[in-house]
Amino acid sequence: MKTFLALLLLCSLLVVMAATEDDLGCGDVSKENMVISTALCDACEGLFDEARIGELCRSNCFQNSYFEGCFDSLNLR
């Protein structure tokens, strides 16, 4: 499971790092914060084994209750 999450994180980082700020669609979010937030959502998706959670976590540029729930579920507070 740890290997899967590590690979998922690596893939997410590569995709986001390759994107330009305009491609990301969240003008106020820096690329660095986008990478971290995307990795958090991907880890949450892997934790719960539910693909829709990652999508919901990333919605509205991470400004939603799913993002906060993932943050809490991963014990990051």
From TrEMBL:
<dbReference type="Pfam" id="PF01147">
    <property type="entry name" value="Crust_neurohorm"/>
</dbReference>
<comment type="function">
    <text>May increase the toxicity of alpha-latrotoxin and/or other venom components. Is non-toxic to mice and to the cockroach Periplaneta americana.</text>
</comment>
<dbReference type="InterPro" id="IPR031098">
    <property type="entry name" value="Crust_neurohorm"/>
</dbReference>
<dbReference type="InterPro" id="IPR035957">
    <property type="entry name" value="Crust_neurohorm_sf"/>
</dbReference>
<dbReference type="GO" id="GO:0005184">
    <property type="term" value="F:neuropeptide hormone activity"/>
</dbReference>
<dbReference type="InterPro" id="IPR018251">
    <property type="entry name" value="Crust_neurhormone_CS"/>
</dbReference>
<keyword id="KW-1015">Disulfide bond</keyword>
<comment type="similarity">
    <text>Belongs to the arthropod CHH/MIH/GIH/VIH hormone family.</text>
</comment>
<feature type="signal peptide">
    <location>
        <begin position="1"/>
        <end position="18"/>
    </location>
</feature>
<dbReference type="GO" id="GO:0005576">
    <property type="term" value="C:extracellular region"/>
</dbReference>
<keyword id="KW-0732">Signal</keyword>
<protein>
    <submittedName>
        <fullName>U50-Sparatoxin-Hju1a_1</fullName>
    </submittedName>
</protein>
